[in-house]
Amino acid sequence: MLKVHADAKTGYLELTVDGAIKKADFEAVIAAVDELIKSNETVNVVEVVGEIGWVDVEIWWKDILFQLTHHKWLGRIAVVSDKGWVGPLTRFFAPLYPAEIRVFGLKQLDDARHWAKMEDVGMRAD
Length: 126
What we know:
- This protein is an alpha/beta fold.
- It has helices at 23-39, 57-69, 86-93, 109-116, and strands at residues 2-7, 12-21, 43-55, 74-80, 100-104.
- It has one domain (2-116): Transcription Regulator spoIIAA.
- It is 37% helix and 33% strand.
- The protein is globular and about 35 Å long.
């Protein structure tokens, strides 16, 4: 499952991954991003990662094509998870994205939201 919450006024997108990701889930994210970039130069993202289930190969390909055709739309990305592998994997792939990326634990979700929205944060990310 992939839940999407978008705020067009602030250019904020929050994604929650918890289980398998289906084509319709991915298409909802693409539609939300396309709508956000109509009125915002950049989009700030919080991605909350729970369990990762099956992801169709077609989605991986569509994601690559999307990234190639949508340049520099990302502002800040906060990846939030208590899964031990998420932080290192995020840091490994971070140089491929034209965005500032930080990893937060689940207890820091509010801090991640504030940071992604470019608000002052009292706590530091991991």
